[in-house]
Amino acid sequence: MKGLTAEMEKVSMEQKVIKEGQRQVQHKLKAMEAKCDELRRETALVIQQSAATQLRLALMFQILQARQNKDFAKTAQLAQAFCGTVRVTGSPDLALGETAYIVSFNAS
User: What is the pLDDT of residue 25?
Assistant: First the structure.
């Protein structure tokens, strides 16, 4: 009988160890899922910023082309569109001074 009781205690301890291991794995899995969600959000933000940057670069190129062609009305229109994209996207990488430079550049 003592042997059976000792064996049951051993099995009970092993079950507790297994349950604790499962809890730890579950905790790590939740942490990994949270990190994965964070990375998805960051990736979406980078994609959005990249698209906005591509749009601004395309507008800048069109502004330069319009200036080369001495089409100042189109240059002004594109400059306004460019400034609108900066305001809409809230671009921290393009300071107001640079925007003012583009507008004054178009006026000359």
Answer: 97
How far is Cα 76 from Cα 105, in angstroms, rounded to an integer? 10
- Residue with more model confidence, 5 or 87: 5
Within 8 A by CB and 6+ apart from 103, the residues are 79, 83
Contact of 75 with 106, CB cutoff 8 Å: yes
List, for residues 41-50, the tens digit of each pLDDT value.
999 999 999 9
Please say whether the beta carbons of 96 and 103 come within 8 A: no
- Computed on alpha carbons and rounded to an integer, the radius of gyration of the chain in Å comes to 31
Region of residue 71 (phi > 0: left; psi between -120 and 50: alpha; otherwise: beta): beta
